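User: For a reading group we're discussing how well predicted structures match intuition. Take Proteasome assembly chaperone family protein. Before you show the prediction, I'll give you the sequence so everyone sees exactly what went in.
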Amino acid sequence: MAQIRVFADELTDQLDSPTLVEGLPGVGLVGKIAADHLVEVFDMTHYGDVYCGGVPKVAVYMEGSPTLHPPVRLYADAEHDLLVLQSDIPIRPESATELATCLDSWIADLDVTPIYLSGIARQKSDGVPALYGVGSDGVLDRLEEAGIGLPTETGLISGPTGAMLNYSVQRGTPAFGLIVESDPQFPDPEAARIIIKQGIEPLTGIEVPVDDLVDSAAEIRQAKENLAKQMQQADEESSQARPLGMYQ
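Assistant: Thanks. Here is the predicted 3D structure of Proteasome assembly chaperone family protein, as structure tokens, for the group to look at:
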């Protein structure tokens, strides 16, 4: 039975219209890296487990602990009114609508505003990765107030993140999408840093330390390499933004 099992109920009453940062794996693993960093840097509480349709039925174990967990989990930080959707595995896009539907009533009950994260494949350069924001009706003024740039080309967001954004548009519910230039082949901690500092921070008003993210970039790349290879093998299933071109 599809459900979200919340076992930190004491936090529910402390959350006031929280922001949810989605961290499904995609291009450059920017969403995954950013979400993992938020959970770690704020020592977020394991708030609940996600048993929605479309989530693969696998069990995850962590280094140094015998406890098993489902692959998709929710973390909460009541002090910052922040939630993180963390996933240790890719979600197939055809399953993402089931996931979005399953999350919908919970999002509505808590008056959650989601921020969905996506990389757009760009070859690595010496410049700072560009970031821009998109959103459904009702949040566009907040993108402008946060100083987040507009898209510089026509494009689409595919994979599970695109499916969940599509669901928000269809339902008429508020949702942000942050898109950052990312390495198409390897985990990209620098792109994750940009999406945190130039996207998540101004939208939430939360200052996020990123020194560890920068200092540990090589270690992060190595730790995420196997997942990145899985994403490359299933490229058409990955969350990613890509240009459409004028005459697509």
